[in-house]
Description:
The complex is a heterotetramer. Chain A is built from 15 helices and 21 strands. Chain A is an alpha+beta fold. In chain A, the strands form five sheets. In chain A, strands 1, 7, 8, 9, 10, 11, 12, 16, 17, 18 and 19 form an eleven-stranded mixed β-sheet that branches. In chain A, a hairpin with a 5-residue loop joins strand 13 and strand 14. The radius of gyration of chain A is 25 Å and the shape is globular. By secondary structure, chain B is mostly helical. Chain B contains nine helices and no strands. Chain D is mainly alpha-helical. Chain D has two domains: about 70 residues, no CATH class; about 220 residues, MetI-like (MetI-like fold, Orthogonal Bundle), CATH 1.10.3720.10. Chain D is globular. The model of chain D has no long low-confidence stretch (mean pLDDT about 80). The chains are: A alpha+beta, B mainly alpha, C alpha/beta, D mainly alpha. At the A-B interface, helix 8, helix 10, helix 12 and strand 17 of A face helix 4 of B. Chain D: InterPro entries: BPD_transp_1_N (IPR045621), MetI-like (IPR000515), MetI-like_sf (IPR035906). Chain D: Keywords: Cell membrane, Membrane, Transmembrane, Transmembrane helix, Transport. Chain D: This is ABC transporter permease. Chain D: Belongs to the binding-protein-dependent transport system permease family.
Amino acid sequence: MTxxxxxxxxxxxxxxxxxxRGFVRRMLALGLTAxxxxxxxxxxxxxxxxxxxxxxxxxxxxxxxxxxxxWQAPTLLNPHFASGTKDQIASRIFFEPLAGWDKEGNLIxxxxxxxxxxxxxxxxxxxxxxxxxxxxxxxxxxxxxFTADDVVFTAEYAADPATAAFTTGAYTNIKVEKIxxxxxxxxxxxxxxxxxxxxxxxxxxxxxxxHFGEYKGAKSREAPANLKPVGTGPYKFVDFKxxxxxxxxxxxxxxxxxxxxxxxxxxxxxxxxxxxxxAVLQTGEYDYAWNLQVEDDVLKRMETGGRGRVSTxxxxxxxxxxxxxxxxxxxxxxxxxxxKTKHPTLSDPKVREAINLLIDRDSIQKFIYGRGGTATAxxxxxxxxxxxxxxxxxxxxxKANKILDDAGYKRGSDGIREKDGKKLKYVFxxxxxxxxxxxxxxxxxxxxxxxxxxxxxxxxxxxFFSSDVANPxxxxxxxxxxxxxxxxxxxxxxxxxxxxxxxxxxxxxxxxWLGRNVSRYxxxxxxxxxRAAQKELDxxxxxxxxxxxxxxxCEAHVILPLLSRTRVAAGASNLMFDHSxxxxxxxxxxxxxxx
Amino acid sequence: xxSTGVLAILVxxxxxxxxxxxxxIDEIDFSARLxxxxxxxxxxxxxxxxxxxxxxxxxxxxxxxxxxxxxxVATVVGTVIGAIAGMSRRYLDPVLMWVTxxxxxxxxxxxxxxxxxxxxxxxxxxxGVEGGVFIMIVVVIGGxxxxxxxxxxxxxxLSLREKEFVEAVRAMGASRWRLxxxxxxxxxxxxxxxxxxxxxxxxxxxxxxxxxLGLGFPPDIPTWGRLLFDAKDxxxxxxxxxxxxxxxxFLTVLSINFIGDGLRDAFDPRRVM
Amino acid sequence: MTTHPVLSVDKLSTAxxxxxxxxxxxxxxSFTIGPKETVALVGESGSGKSVTALSLMRLTPxxxxxxxxxxxxxxxxxxxxxxxxMRQVRGDEIAMIFQEPMTSLNPxxxxxxxxxxxxxxxxxxxxxxxxxxxxxxxxxVRIPAATSRIHDYPHRFSGGMRQRVMIAMxxxxxxxxxxxxxxxxxxxxxxxxxxxxxxxxxQEEEGMSVLFIxxxxxxxxxxxDRTVVMYGGEAVETGTTADIFARPAHPYTRMLLSAVPxxxxxAGHPHPVPFPKIDxxxxxxxxxxxxxxxxxxxxxxxxxxxxxxxxxxxxxGLLGRARGRVHAVxxxxxxxxxxxxxALVGESGxxxxxxxxxxxxLIEPLSGSVLLDxxxxxxxxxxxxxxxxxKMQMIFQDPFASLDPRMTVGAAIAEPxxxxxLASRAEAREKTAELLRRVGLSPDMAGRFPHEFxxxxxxxxxxxxxxxxRPRLIVADESVSALDVSVKAQVVNLMLELxxxxxxxxxxxxxxxxxxxxxxxxxxxxxxGEIVEIGPRAEIFGNPQHSYTRRLLEAVPxxxxxxxxxxxxxxxxxxxxxxxxxxxVPPERLYREVSPGHMVQVSDSAPPLPVVAAA
Amino acid sequence: xxxxxxxxxxxxxxxxxxxxxVLFTVLALAPGDPFEELAxxxxxxxxxxxxxxxxxxxxxxxxxxxxxxLAAMAQGDWGFSFAxxxxxxxxxxxxxxxxxFVIGSSQILALAIALPIGIYAAMRPYSVFDQIANTLxxxxxxxxxxxxxxxxxxxxxxxxxxxxxVYRSDISAEGWRWYWEHLRQAIMPIMVLGFFQAxxxxxxxxxxxxxxARLDYVTTARAKGLDERTVTLRHVSRNALIPVVxxxxxxxxxxxxxxxVTEQIFRVPGIGSLLISAMLANDTPVIMxxxxxxxCLVVLFNLIADLLYGWLDPRxxxx
Lengths: 595, 273, 615, 319
């Protein structure tokens, strides 16, 4: 499909000749669906669709108690401090953004009256301005009205470096102005194709100015409301024991009619994923459990009880392996894996190609991740239109052997291949996590058969993902030959996600290994394509540029994608819930109900 | 006697077993996942179809070695500290007992994390991956379990050094060193060995608990504790997975404790009278 | 005696199961006890006397012992009674007291409670009644301030007082029969006299019978109407005490009697005299051999002790500061010549053992001087001291405890040689064999362990070990006190023989006056850390001057029923304690010389006769 | 008595100081970062993580941090949780009661099992009962608590559906139902912990009773005509308990260790699970405070053991 044809289709939708759903279906067939299709339509002046849960109850309340189990316990309730998903889930119960993402990547208004579009004048033609109309008659839990002041304040709060908000990235390069009490205008410095970041989803929850006003910047941690949230959400705060339990009660003044259904809400934390699944699927002690990183077999067995069901939704998260093309065992200027070095064998593309052939992605999916992930050869998989159609994976020990034979790597007496005295012996590192260790085992076995010896190493997650400069085991240091982890794609757009492939983000000693490009690999073509995509307002051209970045890295076999991860949750059979891979599980908790 | 036999069989099993059952511990066979015990896999398989008998025998080496080595560390350190405290008359004793109490209050887990972080690379360079982790775990488990031994040895020393035969040897002009090494220590060692036998089982359990908390051996090393931990989510369909390592730990603990009881009797001089 | 015995024991046998085999410890023992009669069961260790007593009460371990025969009490055979009925008998009809007063009382219960327990159980008394009765009983056994002491715990009582509590407990239900199992063995001789006196008195008051178990013929002579002699689990001779002492029929009885040291039997012998050798088959003694004078009077004394003082601090309080001091040894002075035996006598806590250990610097003395062959031991550094120790060796009370249970006796004997680097391994082996022969053991025993020997043999081994380095001086701390009479005699004889042969000087520490009389040349009597009287043996025993010396000698039981003493005033005086406050300054002591070498401490009230300053 | 207590207390102070110093050094040197979750999220700029480390003083030298911590502690300020952004003392106070309840009950259960069984077994050594009790004790301490915990869950929660396995601190029932619910959810953690401890305590009690049973005063008691029950309970048990108290006090660190795992399995919101989560999140102030509280509890329990010792044994004078 050419760019032109696409434009015609969008026009058809706009004129009503083609249904939204029809458009999305066609895009789907082209490998270019839902979330970004929605964005495409929005940019072309077509309103977003809605894939949220249809809400049946006819009045608010009467649903009794809703029990949610988060096996990682929430520890704080300020959405801008929320370091992990668990905290974002908890704070989202009380706070709301202007809009959230549904499971198909549609932008759904929450505190906004409508999603900005070209048609309603919310988006400017130059891609620099977004105007949000706010919902009227929204009240904070303490009865004060919600206004544009709160929105402007939230931006100031998060942008202040002294606040040290995790969301600060979304607010640093923008200007937020109050137009009137219920209108806010955002101005971007550059034309910004992906404008739905500030005030949207995880990063966008609005704080009440009258509670946080005095606690901006350095004093931020002293705010009493950090632990006793006053928001606009469907449930009001009752009690919170950090790391243990959070309770809420129905907000009678909630701004969506007839919502929420439940009278009380309890979020319990702690334990492990398997027993969380048990508590929902087997004993029914809880209604909902989240992030069930459990072997699918185990989940399936639990589901047979019939007390609950497992639900998976797509996300942009990707489990992948980096092959280090720099030398991790030689120190240059105080750092190992420096770009000034070359890996003795992994810098050979043939070796990397062979290793890629030794990964049995289908088995890994089938026997380990199940519904938790889909085997893939593309780094970006969601939204599907950013997924490369060109990249394919294959598992063939034979081919790998042949490639290595041809490249001159001969098996030594110990069965390990070598060339010029350099053995194909690698340290393969990942974090401690059962599926990852099993994946490591599977890959190790296949490599063994191709004469490659892997030493498996696993590091405690808190160390592996730490930013401690002194620690050699962090994933950004890459002091190993191969490493495997998952990286999160926070919004249904891969631009920011793909900064892992640009040369100026290479992690090194100078930037204290905080650079996003962990692989150290770079390609001027990728840099160029990425830069172009950042300014490209035409969604189709932009998608093509981003796909190019992805393909360069995957084809170089520096990045070996394994699985496109899904978000797995379990709910009681009678609970109607709505979770999304693009937003937190509680993003639409107001609409949950029991049948 | 029977217990010595059981322990001997276990030890022989993990030492000689891999020679008789030369199945690789990490041979993945998706067609035989969670297989129940059969001729092909006498102990069944785990969820990657890896042979549990082979894994048990391999892991047993490590579990038993951890148990005995940690016991050795705990008893040697405890005996040395307890002996010094028990022999010193005035100042050293309270200081050492203070240190002992201090160690009793130290948390194992952060300490283990620290040790792994500080020494892993150095130890790995010298002893290899498994050897390095092995040494760290042994040092941490043993290093945090010497205190009861030290107290025991000290109490033994305090009572033995007042015994007439010790005084008799002192009256002969024996040096303190000779007193301790030739006379007090051999007589104090009986209860220490009994305590040591208990340490073996405690260390095996401690290692498995560390695995549970994700701080033990690398996950691809199938110690008994690790196997038990991995099996826990599949108990309902594959109880054999947990049964064999569980039984192995139990038999080891049981036989070692019975041997300890036997040793206690054997070391009791009254018995012979 | 009477037609209706209180208790008649017929063919009582007791066997224990030891490693799956039954071993008979008491074989077919028969005797009777009449009303108000005291029967002594006498024998050496292992003769089965205590097991007999426990069997009567059926207190042997249920599962591993077997009692046969019959024990008739009040027409019932106790051995046939059901358990519950037997419990009714215990404590009510038969009561028992034991050897070790220190361990026979439950440390965590008040003595009042422990006495009242039997009253409540057998007499059905209420708490209050039982308490009142307990006070009465404590009064009866002469415990001062009984009302206030019933709530005290056992550790607040001395050994003698505890034995009184035990007696009160036994008497609680006015039993028909009291079994006393070595009730005075662990007590000091003056306390022993008090307790024996008390038992006799109470027996008369209450009209009960007593079965008195002892190894001490002196005590038997003192207390028993009739005597049963036990040997190897059998009753070898039964008769009235007078008959048995006058006309012993069984060779064992004869041997026992001739081995008993008798106080006063040494009058007229200037030097120590060995015990007579006894013919094992007839039990008749051979005439004693005199030993020539061994004392080297002309030479400088081997040991000169001057103003030796040893004190221990008692710590307590918030910062562990000293709160008081035990004045264990206070300005003790004496000397000892080659070939001479100086006996240090006194009761427990008098400081005699501390003196012995201070002389060897096994305990660090506070002040004073100790000259060994003219060299000041106190001034030596640790290394020199260790070296010098080979000139002085020590033999302890408990031969089992003083041998390392994990070392062969050969190694033990060779050890002093090894430590002092006096011999090569081969030489040491040879020397060991010679030493073993010397102390009357066979050299091939060197490979055995201590537990394979009897008590007497072990003490010989200890002596051999002490002799290995050819010392000048031997400190013998209660070295024969724990041995049976016959063995005791042999060991004493060995020591005398060695003294003669090797010119040894002995510092002989003992509480046993009869043995002391036989072995010593001179005697020093210690009381509360001080020497109250010192002098030639004949002087001390023949002409005791200090009141304490007299009391000590009077209290020794005489193994002759004909000379059974008249009743003493029933005293409850206890041994005084040597604990003093920190600011206590010991008074300057003065001594008067009664006769040459016989010095007596002058107490404040003593007549101001010829006085010599303590020098 | 008062002097004795005061003295013990004064001894505890340098101990606690020493413990705190060692703890702090250990934690300061230990690797990890409280902000790991931010690492793979491209939305969070690296500067934020750097700023946070600086803000919480993670990059300061160890001694500086220790002295700062000590000074704050002296003023009653326990620090500020990185993960929860609230005061640590608040966090701990919320959780201490639960831990004390679970540990306390499990210890009571352990003793309630160990005392009768240990005593009964020791009074009949080598009998069938003794052999069975011994074997069960070995089973008890050869199974790690995480495993028994899971077995219990499978049996009581999933198969039988009798007991909940998620411990809730916010049970909303009223009156007796509240107690009932609390009891129901506490049964399994208490049993798991209790059984594990009971196993080793039984062995202690048994050997201690065996030692006491052959002492003279027990024969004295029998000679008084007391029945076996009275002899055992009145004369043997109390004396036998004296060494058991010391052993139990020595076990306290192990008990707390076991509690950590048990709390994790049953989601008991005690300080044990707080420690685990803080450790996984590298929340140093919380780890520091919790381990310190554990250390204090250990010291406290030793103190209690000393008191108990004195109460059981009148020979110990507190002078």
